[in-house]
Amino acid sequence: MKPIKFLSFIFLILISSNSFSQQKYFEPKPVTEADLKLKVCDFDSSAQAMYLFDVANIHIDFDESVSLGFKIVFDRKYRIKIFKKESSDLANGSFLIHNGDKEKLLKIKAFTYNLDNNGKIEKTEINKQSIFYENISDDLTKVKYTLPKVLEGSVLEVSYSIVSYDLTSLKSWIFNDNIPVKYSEVVYDIPEYFTFKPMTTNFPTNSIKSNWLSNQSASFVSKERELIGGVTGTSFNFSNFSFIVKSELYAVNNIKGFTKELYTLPRNDLNIKISQELVYIRLPWYTLDRANKSWFSLSTALWDSEKFGKKLTSSPMLKKELLSLKSNFEDSIQFLTFLIETVQKKAKWNNEYSLSIDKDLRQVLTGEQAYSAEVNGLLYQLVKEAGYTVYPGLVSTFGREKPNLFNSSLRGFDHMICLVVSGNELLTLDACSPFSKPGFLPKLDYNGEVLALVPSNPVLVQNNPTKSKEIIILNYALEADETIKGDVNAFYMNAEAETRMKFDKTNPNHQLKSNDIPAVTSEFSFEVSPAKASVSEKYKFSWAGIDKIGEEMRFKPFLFYAQESNPFLPTERYTPIFLSNPFSETIKVIFNFPSNYEIVSVPKSSSVVLDELAKFKLVVSSDETSIQLMSELNFNEYYFEVADYASIKKLMDEMIRKHADEIVLRKKK
Predict the structure, then answer these.
(1) How many degrees, rounded to 5, is the angle at CA 173 between CA 169 and CA 177?
(2) Cβ proximity of 496 and 470 under 8 Å
(3) 61, β-bridge pairs
(4) Three-state secondary structure call for residue 191
(5) Cα-based distances in Å from 471 to 66, 147, 585, 619, 637
(6) pTM for this model (two decimals)
(7) Would you tell me how many other CB atoms lie within 10 Å of the CB of residue 405?
(8) Is residue 568 within 8 Å of 519, Cβ to Cβ?
(9) pLDDT: is 4 or 184 the higher one?
């Protein structure tokens, strides 16, 4: 192609497309009477609905009207069979599109199929009034739709197409859903000019993979304007070219729906999924190369970015003042805690996570609304100016897609924290959390490793949740009127303190695990210590829950703190157990009674140990006028495989059994 001398542009005209080994694995057939008479899912008989199929074709198409000559089209079609009317809400669907010039909705069609009174198939099309557009943000619009005449036995069919002009990103495909999926498939059609690296997650052994090639040919016309002898002329150059399209098919059969179980991983971690990561684009007229992408190159690009590194390294502030203040603190932990609290007071976080720093950080200091990277960017600058070695750290917040550590990519990262070198430790700081102390992060920040943006050598740092603690001390006595009166001192640390903050802080009854609520008599207090990431509660109570049977008095010593039900009730478990963080719960009981009573029976000590992973222990001791009990539950890990389920269930069953054991007293004769 000749050099372009003044104003030029390239437009492309598609001439032909010839397949030399074209093959599609799945072609949807018309809805049949058998589909409408289907009564049950053949691989999950309890399902109230199922996908008969859910298929997509994601293809990069030649288009003469767009600047780079190609566009991405996402075509999806699915059918859902309704077995029970309880699933009729599946008539409501939605999907997201990016606003502006990034994406456009090309078409959407939807039909409901039923059998009429004569046994004939009735097809009802959605009307335009049942399709809605909702602006989610400046960047996103949600397309919502509601299908008509959805009954028990209906088949729903939806298809839509979205065109994207961002050639660097192919949509990911998720094969499973809340309901079973009979067949799910995605086909990527990618011209040879584009290289993407496929990354699969949780793919089952019965998955189907296939690929084939097809040939396409086209011609382009380059148009040049040249100045020749003082006269501007236009010349045209015609060239033909052909290219190969590689088609990749991924499919899975008979996928059960998500099982709703307590303490399970975020759905993102359970998805059967394929993503495509761009390696390079090499068009005859344009090149974008990410083949040599690494954590180092990504880190370098971030440090060079006007909306990240440039903002972090510009406008240093308050260096003399900070160094002077630092001398007033006994150690680094105290001073870093002070800096966190200062940022929390000065900055106004808008509750949005982002890696972009749009503002000058001085603006954040004056109280303007700021994104998470801007809030912690301010903290980074203050810590750095105070003389510490500090690095930005990128994290993925809980519920998002985890970063793929085997492929250098910022996909999944959405939040920045600070990492401070302190001796041999790397302390984590996050001023966006209401509870933030050096070394402790909120629950949301624990979703995979932290990418520490060390300029010369970015590293991935293990990011395991901090163990949370709950300590409850019950000190009470049997009164002359045969009621129990006493006081409670409760302490919650780290993640447990975060949880306490969500409750009504003026009423202790929110914390009780039983319906047998005591009367709070006086002196209720709720104290929060963000610097220690702790909450303490204190109050006095009166309780009249003693059972009197003949001459004996019976009651459960842990009173309203007794664990009464096992969260792991089913005999089988289908998903791993995810507890968010390791934790320990300690309940101490000190019970005093008058000398004219005697002990008939007390609970016996017990212990259940699950290797080094978890442990329950009950220790009981007594004398003539008092009984002491201590219940300890420890989960030293926060993630357990399905194989551990039976042991954890047994451990919790033992705790419930021991918490149900009673103290039995009677008056001396």
Answers:
(1) 150
(2) yes
(3) 71
(4) strand
(5) 64, 52, 6, 15, 19
(6) 0.77
(7) 12
(8) no
(9) 184
Residues 252-307 have pLDDT tens digits of: 999 999 988 888 888 888 899 999 988 889 988 888 887 667 889 889 999 999 99
Cβ of 137: how many Cβ atoms within 10 Å? 9
Three-class SS of 270-307: HCCEEEEEEEEEEECCEEEECCCCCHHHHHHHHHHCCC
In this predicted model, what pLDDT tens digit does every residue of 302-349 receive, in sequence order? Answer: 999 999 999 998 866 677 788 888 888 888 889 999 999 999 998 999
Q: Are 269 and 258 in contact (CB under 8 A)?
A: no
The structure tokens listed for 559 are: 């009173």
Query: What is the reported pLDDT for 636?
Result: 95
């909306």: which residue's tokens? 307
Assess whether pLDDT exceeds 80 at residue 522: no
Q: Give the amino acid at 425.
A: E
Distance CA 201, CA 183 (A): 17
The label of the residue with tokens 């040939």 reads 215
- Tokens matching residue 88: 């009729």
Contact, 633 vs 562, CB < 8 A?
no
3-state secondary structure of 599: strand
Enumerate domains of the chain plus CATH numbers: 4-27+40-289 (2.60.40.3140), 295-461 (3.10.620.30), 468-667 (2.60.120.1130)
d(CA 270, CA 251): 17
CA distance 487 to 491: 13
**Position 551 confidence tier, pLDDT thresholds 50, 70, 90:** confident
CB 290 within 8 A of CB 336: no
CA distance 543 to 522: 13
Residues 425 and 364 sit within 8 Å (Cβ to Cβ)? no
Q: Comparing 203-217, 223-237, 353-367, which segment has the lowest mean pLDDT? A: 223-237
Beta strands 194-201 and 273-283: pairing type? antiparallel
Dihedral over alpha carbons 157, 162, 167, 169 (to 10 degrees): -50
**Adjacent-strand bridge partners of 370:** 349
634-638: long-range contacts (C-beta < 8 A, 24 or more apart)?
634/583, 634/584, 635/579, 635/582, 635/583, 635/584, 636/467, 636/582, 636/612, 637/582, 637/613, 638/464, 638/465, 638/578, 638/579, 638/580, 638/581, 638/582
The whole-angstrom separation of Cα 263 and Cα 11 is 55
Residue 622 main-chain phi, psi, to 5 deg? -155, 160
404 close to 449: Cβ distance less than 8 angstroms: no
CB 450 within 8 A of CB 416: no
State the chain's maximal CA–CA distance in angstroms: 128
CA neighbor of 170 nearest in space, from 279, 63, 64, 28: 279
Q: In sequence order, what E strands does 22-152 have?
A: 49-62, 70-82, 92-98, 103-115, 121-125, 131-135, 140-146
